[in-house]
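Table S2 (text version). Query chain:
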Amino acid sequence: MLLGEHEHALDDKNRLTLPARQRDQLGDRVVVTRGLDGCLYVYAAAEWAKLAERVGTLDALSREARTMQRFFFASAMDAELDKQGRIVIPATLLESAGIGRDVTVAGIYDHLEIWDRAAWRDQRQTVEGSAEDVAERLANRD
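Corresponding structure-token output:
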């Protein structure tokens, strides 16, 4: 399970060192794609396959399905961790998420999210301010 917040910085070649605690769980090959809410997602190959199956089998005749398939697949890229545990993130992905040099890598159960550090701080405040209300609504769904 991927957990925690880790502050890092991209180098001049857009390489990001993934947190040491999480590299073993991710393996040597990951998939990086645009995420929801203004971040990037990083999945281990096996976890990406699960998401890809779910999104890929949506009805292609549905406009919403095509939107989600384009969103996740068109920007996705395979990446291999180098010996220092770094991945190269293309500038186009960084730009699409508004990510600068200073980033926060957040472990979110089955994937990592890469955030611009300032955007993460804003997101964290939003989450902390609404988590109790969201929990209550989810609990009342039963």
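Notes on Table S2: The mean pLDDT is 94. The chain has five helices and eight strands.
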